[in-house]
Specification:
little secondary structure
């Protein structure tokens, strides 16, 4: 995805599940050792925390 500032956003995978009012967060074994951020769409407020 090309960003307005000229940058590019890339991901190996994107998973969407549940709804905003009742988000579903599936238990994924890989998340037990993953130290990165895995937000649900229901938690998204703005892109600032993803800058850089």
């Amino acid at each position: 995805m090309d960003l307005a500032g000229g940058g590019r956003l890339a991901a190996r995978a994107v998973v969407a599940s549940g709804t905003y009012g009742r988000p579903h967060r599936p238990a994924l074994p890989v998340l037990e050792s993953f130290t990165g951020l895995v937000p649900h769409a229901a938690d998204y407020r703005s892109p600032e925390r993803f800058a850089a």
